[in-house]
Write a structure and sequence with these properties.
The protein has 13 helices and no strands. The longest helix has 17 residues. It binds iron/sulfur cluster (SF4). The site of iron/sulfur cluster has 14 residues, from helix 10 and helix 13. InterPro entries: DNA_glycosylase, HhH-GPD_domain, HhH_base_excis_C. This is Endonuclease. It comes from Acidihalobacter aeolianus.
């Protein structure tokens, strides 16, 4: 399935989100390596819980690949408890760390072309497209557009993309419509997340939404005189 986005429409969305929420200063981690750990740990949990798990790890070992790999699996899992699914995540983290060391660490990985690096990441147990793209964008500074559930929900409601389209079709649509720039893509993703948490929630708060004038869901409700969702 091929998806397309209109560049002018997408830019209007960005401008309104940026005006409403401002610069987001993502990703909230200290080093590229922590970004990568966080990208795995944040699967199905909030960043707050990831922070707690990272703090526990920091208190136990040096936060580097060799030290974490040398940790017995059950000890690693125990430190990851705050992030949920801790046994599963310990297994995924161990698989990633083993691959990371085999490849020669950050400098060696960063020397790879984006397509090769992405393909390598996707070959690691437990790393799917969203996690790989989080790492590529925020740890390696590559212009790769991250598609998450918030992106699907927002652009589906805006009537600009089919929310259930395959990941690669959606990623392709954004990357074709928005000039390749890692910093800008990072800001885009952060703004989508901010908006999904603030207004375009599972039960949307349309009455306060900066995208209201662009959104068919809101316009339909206004046309039939029904109140927009609000808190
Ligand atoms: S108007 Fe409502 S449905 Fe549309 S983007 Fe805003 S919050 Fe989401």
């Amino acid at each position: 399935m091929t998806c397309r986005l209109d560049t002018a429409q997408v830019e209007r969305v960005y401008e309104r989100l940026f005006d409403a929420y401002g610069e987001q200063h993502w990703w909230p981690a200290d080093t590229p390596f922590e970004v990568m750990l966080g990208a795995i740990l944040t699967q199905n949990t909030s960043w707050q819980n990831v922070e707690k798990a990272l703090d526990r790890l920091r208190g136990a070992v040096l936060l580097d690949a060799e030290s974490l790999l040398s940790m017995p699996r059950e000890v690693l899992a125990d430190h990851l408890r705050p992030a949920g699914y801790y046994n599963l995540k310990a297994g995924r983290l161990a698989a990633f760390l083993a691959w990371y060391c085999e490849q020669g660490g950050y400098a060696a990985l960063n020397a790879l072309e984006t397509a090769e690096l992405r393909s390598g990441l996707l070959g690691v147990h437990g790393i799917g497209p969203e996690t790989a793209d989080d790492m590529l964008l925020y740890a390696f500074g590559r212009p790769v557009f991250v598609i998450d559930a918030y992106t699907r929900r927002l652009f589906g409601r805006l009537g600009m993309l089919p929310p259930d389209a395959p990941y690669e079709s959606l990623r392709g649509a954004f990357e074709a419509a928005i000039p390749a720039d890692a910093r800008h893509y990072g800001e885009w993703h952060a703004l989508i997340v901010a908006h999904a948490k603030s207004a375009c929630r599972s039960r949307p708060v349309c009455a306060e939404c900066p995208l209201r004038g662009l959104c068919p869901a809101a316009l339909r409700q206004e046309a039939v005189g029904r109140p927009l969702y609000s808190n």
